[in-house]
Every structure is written in C-alpha cells, then in structure tokens.
Automatic annotation (TrEMBL):
Gene3D superfamilies: Acid Proteases (2.40.70.10). It holds the Pfam family Zn_protease. InterPro entries: Asp_endopeptidase, Peptidase_aspartic_dom_sf. It comes from Haloferula luteola. Residues 6-131 form the Retropepsin-like aspartic endopeptidase domain. This is Retropepsin-like aspartic endopeptidase domain-containing protein.
Length: 144
C-alpha cells in the first residue's frame, strides 16, 4: 500500500463526474462526508435529484441526479440524528483518485460547502491540522 498523502485541514477537491472543484474541510471528527444541497428530491426508490449550493450566498447552483448509495441516520455536531441520502462520486485530491460516498444535506450556515470525513480520508490521507492547503494551492479556481 502506498504511504498516506499529507493534506491540510482545508484543500481544493475535484469531483470530476460532476465537473466541480470545491474547497473542502477535512474533518477527522466526522465519520462521513457531506456536501451542501439547497434541495433534495427522491425521484424513485433508488435515485435522488439534488441541487448543490456552490457558494455561500446561493447564487451558484448545480442540479444533479444520482443513485442513492445508502440512507443512514447521521448525528450532527449538535447530537441530533437526521436521516440522509448518500451518493457516490469520484474525488481527486492531491493527485489521488478515490470513490467516496457523500451525504446530501443543507450546510448553508457553514463556511465550507463540503466536509470530508474519516471514511473519505483514510487510509490514503493524513491530515496536518496546523496547515491550510498543504497539498493544493490556495488560489485554485472553482470550475463553476
């Protein structure tokens, strides 16, 4: 197995299947990853349509459809459980490609549109929490 790649507490992440580059916060205290959705609509038993909020003000949006990979109860930082749909996508971070599951949730009050939890990070990545943007340049441009 290849040695883990060191990343900072915040990095630029590419989601090539969705044509996106987003700044994500690496959160080793969270098990699962999450992405900010303005709306989530179950289309049928195993598909969901979701609108990603790409900026804090909600001026940039992207509507996507995806297969539901899982539905789980996720406990927020406040301790309240919420049922969430998860979709799979490919993440590219620091040149490493990995299939991850991302929960669809409203994060409009949060600074970062995406959160990378332990399942997405390990064992390929090692987070240096003292560094911002260790593996990706600070001024990367969003593709949207």
């Amino acid at each position: 197995m290849k040695a883990p790649t060191v990343i900072g507490w915040r990095e630029w992440v590419e989601l090539p299947e969705w044509g996106l580059v987003l700044r994500a916060k690496a959160d080793t205290g969270a098990k699962s990853s999450a992405i900010d959705c303005a709306s989530i609509e179950r289309i049928d038993d195993d598909h969901v349509r979701f609108v990603l909020r790409l900026d804090r003000k909600g001026k940039k949006m992207l509507t996507l459809d995806g297969r539901i990979a899982a539905t789980k109860v996720v406990r927020s930082s406040t301790g309240i459980g919420q049922e969430r749909h998860f979709v799979e996508t490919t993440m590219v971070l620091a040149g490493r490609r990995k299939t991850i599951q991302v929960s669809l949730v409203c994060r409009k009050r949060m600074i970062h549109r995406m959160l990378l939890g332990r399942t997405a990070l390990g064992p390929e990545f090692l987070v240096d929490s003292s560094v911002d943007h260790w593996a990706t340049p600070r001024k990367a441009k969003s593709s949207r």
